[in-house]
Amino acid sequence: QVQLVESGGGLVQAGGSLRLSCTASERSRRTFNIHVLAWFRQAPGTEREFVAGISWTGTNTYYSDSVKGRFTISRDNARNTVYLQLSNLKPEDTAAYYCAARPTAVVSREGAEYPDWGQGTQVTVSS
Prior knowledge:
The chain has 1 helix and 11 strands, in the order βββαββββββββ. With 127 residues, it is mainly beta. The strands form 2 sheets. Strands 2, 4, 5, 6, 9, 10 and 11 form a 7-stranded mixed sheet that branches. The protein has a 4-stranded antiparallel sheet with strand order 1-3-8-7, with no helix packed on it. The radius of gyration is 13 Å and the shape is globular.
């Protein structure tokens, strides 16, 4: 099990940028680098949506069509942290953003396949 804590959310104007971080607890350190990691988001009244995923070493990254070219996922295994750089933000990006971990080598776009989740961080984009 990996315990995750997100940070970095906030209020930003359209066109602006934010960087979200998600750090695993110290006791998760030994297994962090054999988990694929992903970011999901959920706006009120909508279903949870896959945003981005990254492989163990960070070599392979995956994005939803709605954020491709604007968001960048990365990870630093030495710091037990995964990042999501959000650029050229739009009001429709407003949501609670969650990081998730899965103890396999395959990134999934299905939230139900991730057993470990952070508590979420709110991103609000004003027009």
